[in-house]
Design brief:
Elements (H helix, E strand, L loop, with lengths): L7 H5 L15 H13 L5 H10 L1 H4 L14 H10 L2 H9 L1 H5 L3 E8 L12 E7 L5 E6 L5 H10 L7 E4 L6 H9 L8
Parallel strand pairs: 1-4
Antiparallel strand pairs: 1-2, 2-3
Helix pairs in contact: 2-3, 8-9
Length: about 190
């Protein structure tokens, strides 16, 4: 099934599939499309999205070009796919590079991802930059060693900040952070 130009499915075809060729029983745009539909229908967790997809499989398989598969994917398939996808690449595909560059500002916040703790492995902690007008994730940086400020600086260094307003949680506001914003051309205003 050919995706209509400019549709979400056409945009998702731009995302590189991280799986080996042998592990591609389900196409990447279809699986992400299933998760997006589940989110639109109120599911907030990956498990909830997967369960929603299981229940709606007969209705969504053909439109998402998943109809040639033996049935819905296992939870591990969906989890492994999302763990391997480049979040920046996915964000650019869904939001569009031109809209990201038109952003007038972004908000940065650090979070511990609920449900990401696995056994003795620590929960995943990230710093995220969200666009004000696009309402999309502009970038994300993993936190190592609990140092959210260092992750924020690394995130900011990879972003175009000239003339853009940057707001953030007070816990991330540090001299190094402010200096990075200033060096990248972001406006600095003192209270």
């Amino acid at each position: 099934m050919e995706a209509e130009a400019g549709s979400i499915m056409a945009c998702l075809r731009q995302v590189r599939d991280p799986r080996r060729r042998e592990g591609r029983r389900y196409n990447l745009p279809g699986l992400i499309g299933m998760l997006l539909l589940a989110a639109v229908n109120g599911e907030a967790s990956l498990r909830g999205m997967w369960l929603w997809g299981q229940g709606a499989w007969d209705e969504i398989a053909e439109p998402l070009d998943l109809w040639g598969t033996p049935g819905p994917p296992a939870y591990g398939t969906v989890w492994g796919l999302l763990a391997g996808i480049d979040a920046d690449e996915l964000g650019r595909a869904l939001c569009g590079e031109e809209r990201v560059s038109e952003e007038t500002g972004c908000s940065i916040d650090g979070k511990v991802l609920r449900g990401s703790k696995r056994g003795v492995t620590a929960a995943l902690e990230v710093v995220t930059a969200a666009g004000h007008s696009c309402r999309a994730i502009l970038g994300q940086q993993s936190v190592t060693g609990g140092d959210q400020v260092a992750a924020t600086v690394a995130l900011l260094q990879g972003m175009a900040l000239a003339g853009k307003v940057v707001s953030m949680d007070a816990g991330l506001l540090d001299r190094v952070t402010v200096k990075t914003i200033e060096e990248k051309g972001g406006p600095i205003s003192a209270p």
